[in-house]
Amino acid sequence: MPYASAADMQSRFGLEELTARTDRNGTGAVDAAVLARALADADAEIDGYLATRYRLPLPTVPPVLVRVACDIARYRLWEDLASEEVRRRYEDARRMLEALTRGHVSLGLPATLPQEQQPALSLAAAKSGAAPNFDRDGLGGF
């Protein structure tokens, strides 16, 4: 599920920055494929966190996830040249995702997975070997 679009990125960071970060061929325009890859990477990172707590795809995209997705995609576009601000926003986005998975922050959506998707807990004891024999002959020495 896409959490943010190219239009979201442009409204937050401007056409000039997106062109500078995506134009690998010197065309002077935003390379839509490069931008789409960064957004897809952000979606995958977000899904990795949310899948532990929410049923995916989400029914709606909360505005906080649009911001988080944009900050993650921006960081990916900057690669190893990220400024302190870009890096800080990415780290804040990851902390937000961690808080969501722990339940410290809510998306305003049902927080638990449906029962059939939750891991089954078993209280059964493990056993190995033959069944114990608790009759008079089997307990002869006790």
Describe the structure.
With 142 residues, the chain is mostly helical. Mean pLDDT is 86; it is low at 117-125. Helix 1 crosses helix 4 (63-78) and helix 3 packs across helix 4 (63-78). Helix content is 49%, strand content 0%.
Write the layout of secondary structure elements.
Elements (H helix, E strand, L loop, with lengths): L5 H8 L1 H8 L9 H19 L12 H16 L5 H19 L40
Which descriptors would you attach to this protein?
5 helices; mainly alpha; 142 residues
Ends apart, CA distance between termini: 65 Å
Total E-strand runs: 0
Strand content: under 5%
Main sheet: strands, sense, barrel: none
Number of helices: 5
Radius of gyration: 25 Å
Overall geometric form: elongated
- Succession of helices and strands: HHHHH
Assign a percent range to the helix content.
Answer: 40-55%
How much is the average pLDDT? 86
Low-confidence stretches: 117-125
The SS-based structural class is: mainly alpha
